[in-house]
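Appendix B, Record 12. Input sequence as logged:
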Amino acid sequence: MKAVPDCSADVAELQYTGKTQYPEEMMIDPKRMGRYERIYTQLHELISGKSPTLTAAMSTIAAVLHFKLPHHFWTGFYFVTGPDQLFAGPYQGPVACQVLKGRGLCLKAAVSAQPVIVEDVTVLEDHIACDARSKSEIVIPVRYQNRVAAVLDIDSDKAAQFDGDDIAPLQRITGLLGPFLKKDDGHLFTGI
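Logged structural output:
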């Protein structure tokens, strides 16, 4: 997948085609797809019909992804609370920025409603560094009724840890949140 050079990149460059970008031998981790499949099965069993709230479901997703995928340094959600603002939701890893406002990769993904992958966040002027150890990042919008209600944000402390092959499995996993987004869980998110 093409690296995103900066946060002002054309949204068309960020769109995922749904096709695997690399042969298996060129994937970042050839075992990752199998891990994602097992994680999805585990999360489906843990969440579907069992999680009482959106927060509980998000907490479970963040915990399982964080501890089952060794390249994850920070794994969590941000709720969309306005057209240029996100609030921290459930997460695993070092302390998060509590509010993201006006810029950053998470807001870019929320506004564009497209996944964002950055191989080296240290070269971006617009990156919000909640922890200086973060080196690469993927952000997956969580949609409800044609709006982005939240984003799944994953950081690695190593560069180039995410590619287009990560998008579809992570979208499938965040799809488990659909039934919870339909309920009024008392969250402040407004969606974009």
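Helices lie at 11-14, 32-47, 54-68, 105-112, 167-174, 178-181.
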